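Q: How would the structure tokens look for this protein?
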Amino acid sequence: MDNWCYSAGGSSKHGLKEVGSLRVIRTYALQELKTATADFKFQIGVGATSFVYLAEIGDGRFGAVKRVMEERGGSRKMFLDEVSVLLRISHPNLVGLLGFCLDKGEQLLLLEYIPNKSLFDKMHTYHGQFSGILTWSNRLNIALDIARALEYLHSQADPPIIHRDVKSSNILLVDNNHAKLADFGLCKLGYGTEHGSQTPTSVKGSFGYIDTIYLSTGLVSPKSDVYSFGVLLLELITGLKSTQGSLTLVEWTKECRKSNGIEALARMLDPKLNGDANLEQLLSLISVANLALLENLEGRPDMSQIVDVILSSIKPQLQLELPV
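A: Here is the predicted structure in token form.
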């Protein structure tokens, strides 16, 4: 069994750099993770190519074991690509890697355990709604956390990383105020130009969130994640899923969010909030979403600009009454 240790400020044989901390990534034998998960007994999540199980990893600590299944389309290359990404990243708003296993044909990731399920579960399932809705302040804080996660991937990771699958089911809630971005199986490392790849790639992602330019050209860029983040903002604002029948949420809300009338824009707010939101913040987030969803890549902001706007809108300000 190997223990890979990465010291502060140093680099490993895998090129991972850490600042201000010591990180240890372990490789596990299959039997260790079978024992930790009680032979994959407690399923806590499911993805397109994987199942996720609760694992007890000692000293009262828990982890999440992602079991990538070849029969569900989880290829060895995809698994190794995800490991490669996870070894390179470390940020408070990204789900971290604790270890992995390639043993006896299994492909297993041991990940940080986030106990409160996904943003999708919280907003769109009976169980999530039964335990209480997210307040307007909760939604702003979650948006800021994910914006910071994407800013890190685009601007601080080395090489830069495009996530390619930003959506509410890949956002895990630490609590109602804080979230982490998960699932790096579709990530693309690096990009050829300032605005993205010059070579078309097969389109990856989830319907409703995929950048329309990426969808039509196969050219992916950080601005593709910006588009998906714009959809996420609409989801947080309206409380609606990313698709509405045969329409995307972007199409469903287009007429309303392009309106110059405050009353029309205020009607976009999730009715479950009963108008309990800050109008200036609402208008600011709709404006950010509109820019993020522009067909013109050049016109879309980068994630650092979006972080700045959300941060400035969160600063204490006069609560304005929403029009009825």
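Residues 1-22 have pLDDT under 50 and may be disordered.

The CA atoms of residues 213 and 295 lie 7 Å apart.

Upvote if useful.
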